[in-house]
């Protein structure tokens, strides 16, 4: 089987770029995950995974990552992205991501609600949430991105 | 290289949720793949992969999975998702996924046609198809999902 | 951790199909990556990765791949896809992908600009670019696809 991740952090950032993909790339760089190969996952924190906010990845590594983002080319538009990790006392956690045309505070509130529903549905109790969120006012082409990289 | 999967099953389920991502999460739970990290793949059944309908995954595992889904927030709308695995006698198989605003029967028929074309194009013969399909009438926010998890 | 890839090539192809997913599947076959499980990555060439244009993958392998594609069911529409790998002298490279309703030449030019911006932003120098691009005039349902498979 593929090795199950053991560490994580949460990050969010925004950036402009000359194209949509460059805006995304620049937001990844600003979020400290620009020089790796993100493999998108959907979205459980394995039991016992440790929070390590200063993780550094070897360039080009394959990094399982839950993320949400929004790219806009409408100048003046407000965009936001948020991720959250809901942590249980003894078992696995749940990761939620959100992006939309709203404020950072609204994105954060949305994530909290999503995590609560995910835990309710699993009849589990949330003892902590780690949330990262960002908002960005588009100048030309902007990207707001939030991510939970999982690592070893 | 990444280890090639050796087992699989097919699953389909639908659910409502308070948000689109929660509807997706709840459909994953209903399909028995809610507490893992899906890595989306596109979409071949490796040679010799065995069908194991009762697979249980350790929480948080990275699970290569072919899947299709549709999320709707239009009350009353009928949505459906289907996956199918076309199996050959001695070689690899082909996985197809579909989702749309239609019945389960229509989604299933669509998958059969897709698998036949995939085998024709490869000049291979289908000896069996395993299909999972589901339809759902949206109440508030609903998700129909069908998946082929691959495992070890 | 997941093993970091060591080899790559670039490929692009287009095809028609009876459905959108079959058009995609047929384009993958034409690009020589149709009988594997693509895991989509975003998008760095690990340091030291070697270019091997004749790579053959065991069927069903999990292959980390950066790719872009466009599917159209508008007869007569011109679609194109391109990928590019920007290579540095001593460090990692950057992969960019693009697809749109344009010519192959336009897609190629777009990729070059994207790679230049990605290197500028990282204060790195591009010493070489490998680009694969394709254009396709849609007959019924067509897919143009470009990919950078990473391997071991």
UniProtKB/TrEMBL annotation, chains A, B, C:
One of its GO terms (molecular function) is arginine decarboxylase activity. It catalyses: L-arginine + H(+) = agmatine + CO2. HAMAP family: PvlArgDC. Keywords: Decarboxylase, Lyase, Pyruvate. Its EC number is 4.1.1.19. It comes from the Bacteria. Pfam families: PvlArgDC. One of its GO terms (biological process) is L-arginine catabolic process. This is Pyruvoyl-dependent arginine decarboxylase AaxB. InterPro entries: Pyr-dep_his/arg-deCO2ase (IPR016104), Pyr-dep_his/arg-deCO2ase_sand (IPR016105), Pyruvoyl-dep_arg_deCO2ase (IPR002724). Belongs to the pyruvoyl-dependent arginine decarboxylase family. Its cofactor is pyruvate. The lineage of its organism: Bacteria, Bacillati, Bacillota, Clostridia, Thermoanaerobacterales.
